[in-house]
């Protein structure tokens, strides 16, 4: 029988056979028989740990030892009110504390504040005196990717906001996505101080972890060629005719029906996948559209694409320098150093090459939207 130690986005502890990708700690919550007690909110130190660290193998509910808790992913842990562990997640912990202090200077907290003092403030943002979770009302379009919310009429269902879609939370993974209703007022489950921007990065979700969840698109949001195509269309306010013309610049003939099918959502029966070669042709055409055609033979479109190539082609098309890429990432409130950014444009095999993950590309596109889309508004 599973232990009652799996944490929901609401901070509740449930029993389920579904496994988690992060471990957590709130102190000793169980008695000598392994049963939970009523003292679940007294310890202010709520942390997110790795499930494996230095080969340690401790019992889940050993007498006199802290209760091992588990989360579906980091997004769930943050929504529940936890913060990164200072021991097993040292880099994330330092980034969190630095960002938190920067974002909470109005509270008069000194820069050398100890984590115990910060935790006590965080605890006031987690639960009230009646031991009820503290939540906030917000417009959905004012929130960032990685937060969990509830919607009017569904107070018991948490949804992950990710890449313009909402994914219902389940212990075993996320359910099929639903469109984000722009302007809708939702209940924001993350405490005010656990918004992803205060962590200096987006939280890890089930889609980014090497989990044991079934490899189904309903188990978590992932970046697809169609997502990239939709985002670019929106960023530059491109009509179907304009997109067809951009494909044509790269000697790729497409029909209006093809473009329409690529832009549809995955749950639409008419949806068609945009292949790597097709997206590569569009990006090559975008480079020509933005910067002009070079003399001589044009480069052939790649048959295989990855996020690094997509990132690089967009950088070339918009003639962006390193400082400008950095500023665009800052617009999306996604912290990366200039050194980290330059590593994405290295050749594979180079000692400093770094794979561009979905959340990096997603936030670059978000930054482009904030930079270029706003210029199109009246």
Detailed description of the structure:
By secondary structure, this protein is an alpha+beta fold. The protein is built from 11 helices and 12 strands. It has 3 domains: 6-126, no CATH class; 136-211; 225-376, no CATH class. It is 33% helix and 11% strand. A hairpin with a 2-residue loop joins strand 9 (154-162) and strand 10.
Poorly predicted parts: 192-201, 207-220
Helix vs. strand class: alpha+beta
User: What's the Cα radius of gyration?
Assistant: 23 Å
How would a crystallographer describe the biggest sheet? 6 strands, antiparallel
The strands making up the biggest β-sheet line up spatially as 7-12-8-9-10-11
Q: What pattern of helices and strands is seen along the backbone?
A: EEEEEHEHHEEEEEEHHHHHHHH
Beta-strand segment tally? 12
Termini, distance in Å? 60 Å
* Shape verdict: elongated
Mean pLDDT: 84
* Total tally of structural domains: 3
Provide a brief overview of the structure:
With 378 residues, this protein is α+β, with helices and mostly antiparallel strands. The protein is built from 11 helices and 12 strands.
What labels describe this entry?
378 residues; alpha+beta; 3 domains; 4-stranded mixed sheet; 33% helix; 11% strand; elongated
């Amino acid at each position: 029988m599973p232990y009652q130690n799996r944490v929901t986005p609401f901070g509740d502890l449930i029993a389920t056979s579904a496994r988690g990708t992060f471990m957590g700690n709130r102190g000793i919550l169980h008695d000598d028989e392994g049963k939970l007690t009523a003292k679940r909110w007294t310890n202010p130190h709520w942390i997110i740990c790795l499930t494996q660290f230095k080969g340690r193998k401790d019992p889940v509910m050993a007498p006199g030892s802290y209760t091992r808790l588990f989360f579906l992913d980091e997004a769930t842990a943050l929504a529940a009110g936890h913060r990164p562990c200072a021991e097993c997640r040292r880099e994330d912990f330092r980034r969190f504390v630095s960002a938190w202090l920067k974002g909470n200077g109005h509270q008069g907290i000194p820069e050398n504040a100890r984590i115990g003092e910060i935790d006590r403030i965080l605890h006031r943002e987690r639960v009230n005196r009646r031991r009820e979770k503290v939540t906030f009302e917000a417009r959905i379009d004012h929130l960032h990717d990685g937060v969990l919310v509830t919607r009017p009429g569904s107070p018991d269902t948490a949804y992950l906001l990710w890449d313009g879609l909402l994914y219902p939370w389940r212990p075993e993974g996320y359910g099929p996505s639903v469109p984000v209703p722009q302007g809708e007022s939702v209940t924001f489950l993350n405490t005010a101080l656990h918004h992803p921007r205060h962590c200096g990065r987006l939280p890890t979700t089930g889609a980014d972890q090497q989990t044991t969840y079934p490899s189904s698109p309903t188990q978590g949001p992932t970046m697809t060629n169609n997502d990239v195509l939709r985002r670019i269309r929106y960023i530059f306010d491109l009509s179907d005719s304009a997109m067809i013309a951009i494909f044509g610049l790269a000697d790729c003939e497409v029909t209006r029906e093809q473009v329409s099918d690529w832009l549809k959502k995955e749950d639409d029966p008419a949806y068609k996948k945009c292949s790597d070669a097709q997206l590569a042709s569009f990006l090559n055409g975008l480079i020509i559209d933005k910067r002009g055609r070079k003399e001589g033979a044009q480069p052939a479109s790649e048959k295989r694409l990855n996020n690094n190539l997509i990132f690089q082609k967009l950088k070339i098309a918009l003639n962006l320098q390193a400082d400008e890429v950095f500023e665009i990432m800052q617009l999306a409130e996604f912290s990366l150093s200039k050194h980290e950014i330059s590593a994405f444009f290295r050749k594979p095999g180079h000692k400093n090459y770094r794979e561009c993950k979905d959340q990096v590309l997603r936030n670059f596109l978000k930054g482009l939207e904030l930079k270029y889309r706003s210029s199109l508004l009246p």
